[in-house]
Specification:
Order of helices and strands: EHEHEHEHHHEHEHHHEEE
Number of strands: 9
Radius of gyration: 20 Å
Bound molecules: adenosine monophosphate
Strand order of the largest sheet: 1-4-3-2-5-6
Strand content: 15-25%
C-alpha cells in the first residue's frame, strides 16, 4: 500500500493502471476510519483493480461553529486499517494541496442541497460537492463508493454525477451499525458513556416507524408525532428534524403509499447525530383507507 500526499503522485499511479485497462475504485473519507468506512473499501476491493481511499478532513464542509478543529484524526491507525482490507493507495493531502492560495471555485447541487441537513448546516453540501468533484478529477475512478448512512449526501453526489455527465458509477453501500443498532460514525467518539447509551434512541425510532408502517399506518404526520414523543422520552435527546420524504427528491410526503426514506437528526447532549432508513409500505391494508 502506498500513501500519497501530492496530487501529482496519485495522478501518475492512476494513469499507469488506466493505461493497462484497469478499473479504479474510490472511497472518499475524512478518516478516523471505522467498520462502516471499511465496508466500502472491502466492496471496492472485490470489484476493482486499484482501490484508492482518500483521507481529508475538508474544512469547507464545516460551519464556523462546527467541529473542524476537534474532528478525530488518526492517520497511522487509518493506514493500518486500510492495509488490512486491501487498499492500494491512500491519498491524504494537506489543506494547502487541495485549496492552494487563490482557490475560488465551488460546485453546488441546487435544491437537494438546501433541504434537511442543508438547513441545519448552510454551505455544508457545497463544501462536500466541491471536494468530491476535485477528488473525482484527481482519482478518475470508474466506481465510487458512498454510505447510505449519509443518505442526502449520496443523493446529492448522484445528482452531481448525472447533471455534470461524470463517467463514474456511484455505488451506494448499506449502513454498518453497532450491535445495539447505533450507526457507526466518527463522531460517536464524542459521546460520553451515558450519551452513548442514549444514542440508541435513533435506531429504535427508525425501527418503531418501520413497524408502524408495516402494521398499516400511512399518515406521515401521525408517525412523526409518535416518533417525537418516543425520542422525546429520552432526556438527553433533542430532535432537530424527523422527515418522511421521497427517496429521490427528498421532498416531504404526507401519505406513505410508496417507498419513503425516514430521515432523522437528533442532538444527544452536544453531539449531533443523523440516521435514516428506507421504508416500503408493503401490501397490507392501510389504516384509514380500508374498504
Ligand atoms: P466520512 O468519513 O464521515 O465523510 O464518511 C466517508 C464515507 O463513509 C461516506 O460515504 C459515508 O456515508 C460512509 N460511512 C460513514 N459511516 C458509515 C456507516 N456506518 N456505514 C456505511 N457507510 C458509512
Amino acid at each position: 500500500m502506498e500513501v500519497f500526499e501530492r496530487i501529482k503522485d496519485v495522478r501518475q499511479r492512476v494513469a499507469e493502471v488506466k493505461e493497462t485497462g484497469g478499473t479504479i475504485g474510490f472511497v472518499p473519507t475524512m478518516g478516523a476510519l471505522h467498520d462502516g468506512h471499511l465496508s466500502l473499501v472491502r466492496r471496492a476491493r472485490e470489484e476493482c483493480d486499484l482501490v484508492v481511499v482518500s483521507i481529508f478532513v475538508n474544512p469547507t464542509q464545516f460551519g464556523p461553529a462546527e467541529d473542524y478543529e476537534r474532528y478525530p484524526r488518526d492517520l497511522a491507525g487509518d493506514e493500518a486499517k486500510c492495509q488490512r482490507v486491501g487498499c492500494d493507495i491512500i491519498f491524504a493531502p494537506t489543506v494547502e494541496e487541495m485549496y492552494p492560495k487563490g482557490f475560488g471555485t465551488c460546485v453546488q447541487v441546487q435544491g437537494l442541497s438546501e433541504k434537511w441537513e442543508g438547513v441545519a448546516r448552510p454551505g455544508h453540501f457545497r463544501g462536500v460537492t466541491t471536494i468530491v468533484l476535485k477528488l473525482f478529477n484527481i482519482v478518475r475512478p470508474s466506481y465510487a463508493y458512498f454510505g447510505m448512512k449519509d443518505y442526502q449526501q449520496l443523493k446529492i453526489i448522484q445528482k452531481m454525477v448525472r447533471d455534470l455527465d461524470l463517467d463514474i458509477e456511484i455505488v451506494p453501500c448499506p449502513t454498518v451499525r453497532e450491535p445495539d443498532g447505533l450507526a457507526m460514525s466518527s463522531r460517536n467518539e464524542y459521546l460520553s458513556s451515558e450519551e452513548r447509551a442514549a444514542a440508541t434512541i435513533l435506531f429504535q425510532a427508525l425501527e418503531l416507524a418501520r413497524d408502524r408502517v408495516q402494521a398499516g399506518e400511512r399518515d406521515a404526520q401521525a408517525l412523526t408525532g409518535l416518533l417525537r414523543e418516543f425520542i422525546g422520552s429520552e432526556p438527553l435527546a433533542q430532535i432537530d428534524y424527523i422527515a418522511f420524504a421521497d427517496p429521490e427528491t427528498l421532498d416531504p410526503v404526507e401519505w406513505i403509499d410508496s417507498d419513503v426514506v425516514l430521515l432523522v437528526a437528533v442532538r444527544i447532549g452536544q453531539v449531533r447525530l443523523i440516521d435514516n432508513t428506507l421504508i416500503a409500505p408493503g401490501v397490507g391494508t392501510p389504516k384509514g383507507r380500508s374498504r
